[in-house]
Specification:
- The chain has helices at residues 37-41, 48-70, 89-106, 115-121, 123-126, 166-176, 183-191, 216-232, 238-264, 279-292, 301-304, 309-320; strands spanning 6-11, 16-23, 27-35, 79-85, 110-114, 134-139, 144-151, 154-160, 268-272, 295-297.
- It has two domains: 6-121 and 307-320, ATPase, nucleotide binding domain (Nucleotidyltransferase, domain 5, 2-Layer Sandwich), CATH 3.30.420.40; 132-299, Nucleotidyltransferase, domain 5 (2-Layer Sandwich), CATH 3.30.420.
- The chain has 342 residues and is α/β, with parallel strands linked by helices.
- It is globular and about 65 Å long.
Length: 342
């Protein structure tokens, strides 16, 4: 009987080509990420066709390096895991096709992993004692969810964005104030020199859905502020605007999370997704949890953004549960949290 379960994981849902080898869902043997940010920055955002082409070019070298860094061969791997949704359809198809080919050729089980479940699972890497049930806030470029993690793959969605995701709002506002792409890290950096109370921006509430999020109105408020300043000749302080916008987003995310923890009697909170690497959000959520006597788990920034380690961690729990994907596994770009596609 083998003591360890070693999973080769592949992630290609957007603009990172990533592969990793993860042991027992907790130990990272390798973590390789090829980022396309420099290529997409020229266009102010991710260009799907270019992303797919870059994945095709880089996926084999990235996987080979992940195996080499782990000091392992395909024969020693117990399963092959891959993100199959949600994400960009062309990008997902590259990873799914690669994983299916490797698993079939090596005679290994294939495990399709939900991208958002991967983000949630990233917390288990550095917080091995974290176990369901707990409250999870997932904030990324494409998703904003507040969920109760009832079991390893069982989620109750309390709230989600009704329009822009938090990360999407960061990108749009960053472009509007001349920071460019990617917006999240740039606003985070510039905001450190600004006054978060300089401009009062709205904090949207969704009628009859106390835990849902809405960020399009905030984005519009920023654009209106900029247009008014342009018409009146008023000088815009970029740092103050960035800090004030960021404070509005962070306050809503923290408030919803803390209120949900109180209402449902949950004492553990975990954050995940690219926006979870935002320094203001991390600090505000930690302070709020400390005041409430809640434990808080947040992955290191390298595990907040898209990576294959999180996919390997999520796949381990699927492997242990006996979940296996068939050779008809396909990309599902619009896959919702809790859904299972082919």
């Amino acid at each position: 009987m083998k003591d360890n379960i070693d999973i080769l994981a592949i992630e290609s849902s957007c603009d990172e080509t990533a592969a990793a080898v993860v042991r027992n869902g907790r130990e990272v043997l390798s973590n390789v990420i090829y980022s396309q940010i420099d290529m997409h920055t020229v266009y102010g955002g991710v260009v799907p066709e270019l992303a797919s082409r870059a994945h095709i070019e880089k996926i084999n070298p990235v996987i080979e390096k992940a195996l080499s860094d782990a000091g392992m061969t395909l024969d020693e791997i117990d399963a092959v895991a891959v993100t199959y949704g949600p994400g960009l359809v062309g990008a997902l198809l590259v990873g799914v096709a690669e994983a299916k080919a490797i698993a079939w050729a090596a005679g290994k089980p294939l495990i399709g992993v939900h991208h958002i479940e991967g983000h949630i699972s990233a917390n288990y890497i550095e917080h091995p004692d974290l176990k369901p049930p707990y409250l999870g806030l997932i904030v990324s470029g494409g998703h904003t969810h507040l969920v109760i993690v009832k079991d390893w793959a069982d989620f109750e969605i309390l709230g989600r964005t009704v329009d822009d995701a938090a990360g999407e709002a960061f990108d749009k506002v960053a472009r509007a104030i001349g920071l460019g792409y990617p917006g999240g890290p740039k606003i985070d950096r510039v905001a450190k020199a600004g006054n978060p109370d300089a401009i009062v921006f709205p904090r949207a509430k969704v009628n009859k859905s106390v835990y849902d999020f809405s960020f399009s109105g905030l984005k519009s408020a920023v654009l209106n502020y900029l247009n008014h300043a342009a018409m009146t000749g008023e000088k815009v302080d970029q740092a103050d605007l960035a800090a004030s916008f960021q404070k509005s987003v962070v306050s809503v995310l923290v408030e919803h999370t803390i209120n949900a923890a109180r209402e449902h009697g949950i004492r553990q909170v975990a954050m995940a997704g690219g926006v979870a690497s935002n320094s203001a959000l991390r600090a505000a959520m930690q302070a709020a949890c400390d005041r409430e006597g809640l434990s808080l788990a947040i992955p290191s920034p390298i595990y907040c953004t898209d990576n294959a380690v999180m996919i390997g961690v999520a796949a381990f729990h699927e492997y242990e549960a006996g979940t296996r994907s068939g050779w008809d596994l396909n990309a599902v770009p619009g896959l919702r949290l809790g859904e299972r596609g082919k």
